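Reminder to self: tokens first, then the designed residues, so the page reads top to bottom the way the pipeline ran.
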């Protein structure tokens, strides 16, 4: 098998979350190929998100899930950072807004 650095399969898209939505979560999608398998981190407004800091956050594969989204805490610009031994790639910014 050939080793190579991370390559995006899917980058996150802008999301407008309707505040009256019954859907109580937001999913920011990120998918990367690489060998060895890359690890994922997420940034909000340029700062890495500590997934342990808020029980509402979870990471499923590369997708960042926010349960019970909160405009004051969660609106902003998100980026996905994927890393393996060959390097890191940073996604475009995806903006999460509430409407």
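Designed residues (99 positions):
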């Amino acid at each position: 098998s050939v080793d190579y650095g991370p390559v995006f399969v899917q980058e996150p898209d802008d999301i407008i979350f309707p505040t009256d939505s019954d859907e109580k979560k937001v999913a920011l999608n990120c998918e990367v190929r690489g060998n060895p398998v890359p690890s994922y981190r997420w940034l909000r407004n340029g700062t890495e998100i500590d997934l342990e800091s808020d029980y509402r956050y979870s990471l499923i594969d590369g997708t960042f899930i926010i349960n019970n989204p909160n405009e004051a805490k969660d609106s902003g610009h998100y980026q996905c950072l994927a890393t393996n031994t060959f390097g890191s790639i940073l996604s475009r910014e995806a903006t999460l807004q509430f409407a």
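The chain has a mean pLDDT of 97.
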